[in-house]
Amino acid sequence: MNARENTSRALDRWKVMDAKTKGKYARLLWLLIGPGVLVMLGENDAPSMLSYSASGSQYGIGVFLPFVVLTFLMAFVVQEITVRLGAVSKAGHAELIYKRFGRFWGNFAMIDLIFTNFLTLITEFVGVVAGASYFHISKFIAIPVAIVIILLAYSFRRYWSWERITMALALFNLVFIPIAVLAHPDWSAVGKSFLTFQPFPAGGLNNNNLVIFLSDIGATITPWMLFFQQGAVTDKGLSKHDIRHGQLDTLLGAILATLAAVACIIATSPLFIHHMNSASFGAAQFAQALQPYIGRTGSTLFALGIMEAGLVAATAISTSSAYAYGEVQRKNHSLNSSFKEAKSFYLTLFAIVMVAGGIVLIPHFPLEWVVLIVNVIAVLTMPPALGFLLLLVNDKEIMGEYRNKAWANTLAISIGVFICIAGILYALTAIFPNFTL
C-alpha cells in the first residue's frame, strides 16, 4: 500500500469517525454506503434489463414479478457475505481464494470470473448500442463515446470520488419506475400477481421458458458481483465496525434494484397485452416497440435507461476484473492510486473495456442472442463461486466471530441447490427439446 492510498483512506476514515463521534447518523450512512448500492444497481445491467423486458413482453405481469423479488432476496443473502469477508479480512475475493485453496483452485475461480466477466462486458456495450440506435446514433459513434465516459470515471484517483460519480449514474436506473407508470398498468393485476404466485409460465418449463427463467436469475446473481463488492469494501477501507452499515447499504441497493426490475417488466407488459411477440423485434427495438403505449417521452427514457445500465455495469465489471487481477498478481490495485502507482491495474481496466467494445463493432455480431445467453451462462458458472464463498465465510481463522451462523449457511446452501437444479433443468431441455415440467 503506497502513501497516497494510506492518506486517502486515513482521510475517509477520519470523516467516518467524526460522524460517529458527533452522532451524525445520516452523514455516517452517506459516507459508508456505496459498494452495496453499486453492485445491486450495477447488476441491473443492460442484459438484465433486456431480460426483464423479454419477460414482460412474452409473459406479462402475472408470472415473473414475484420471482424477480425472490432473486433479489437471494442476491442480498449472497452479497451480504462479501461485506463481512471484505471488512474482516481486508482482502479481495481472489486474494483469499488463492491464499486458502492454492493456485489450482485459485486459477479455476479466476477462469470462471474472467469468462463470465468478459462475456457480460460485451453485452453491456450491446445495451449501449441498443439504446443509442433509438436516437439513430451509429454504434461506431456510441461505442467509442461510451468507452471514453467509462475511462473518464477512473481519472479522479480517489475511490470515494469514483464511487459517488458512478453511484449517481447508477441511480438513473430508477427511471424505469416512471416508465412503468406511463404504461398505465392495471395495478390491481400487479398486486394480484404477488398474491397468487404462478410458479411456471404457460406451457411449463420448456427450453424457451427456461432461458428466460435462468436469464432472470442471472440478472441478479453472478460471479463478478462477489469479486466487485468485496474488492470495493476493501478499497473503501470498511472495518469490522462498519459491517452493519455495509449490510444496510446492500439491503438498500437490493430494494432499489428490485423496484427498477419490477418496473421494467411492468413497462414492457403492454407488448404482451397487445399480443406482440418479442421475437419479431431485436433487443435494440424495445424502445420503438413501446412508443405507441408509453409515448415518446417514455420510450426515450427507456432507451436512455438501457444505455445507463450498460455504462454503469461496464464500469463495475471492468473494476471487478482489475481488482481480481491485481490481487492475484499482488500488485497495487486501488482506485486511490494514480496510473503510475498502479499501472497494471489501470491497464487491465482499459484493455478489457476496449477489447469488449471492439468486439461489438464487428459486423453482423449476434447481439440479441448474446444478451439472453450470457445471463444463462452466469447462472451455470455461479455454483462454484458460491462454493468458494461459503468455504471462506465459514473459515474460523479468517472470520472468527463473524463467520456464518447455521441459519445463514442453510439459506446460502439452499440458494446454491436452487441454482444447480435450474441449471440441470436447462441441460435437460437442451438435450431433450420436448422436455417440459
Automatic annotation (TrEMBL):
GO biological process, one term: iron ion transmembrane transport
Keyword presence, Electron transport: no
Transmembrane regions listed in the UniProt entry: 25-41, 61-83, 104-122, 134-156, 168-190, 210-229, 250-273, 301-325, 345-363, 369-394, 406-432
One term of GO molecular function: manganese ion transmembrane transporter activity
Keyword Ligase among record annotations: no
GO cellular component terms listed in the entry, alphabetical order: plasma membrane
InterPro entries noted in UniProt: NRAMP_fam
Cell location: Membrane
Membrane topology, as annotated: Multi-pass membrane protein
Pfam families in the cross-refs: Nramp (PF01566)
Keywords of this entry: Membrane, Transmembrane, Transmembrane helix, Transport
Major location (coarse): membrane
Protein name: Mn2+ and Fe2+ transporters of the NRAMP family
Biological classification of the source: Bacteria, Bacillati, Bacillota, Bacilli, Bacillales
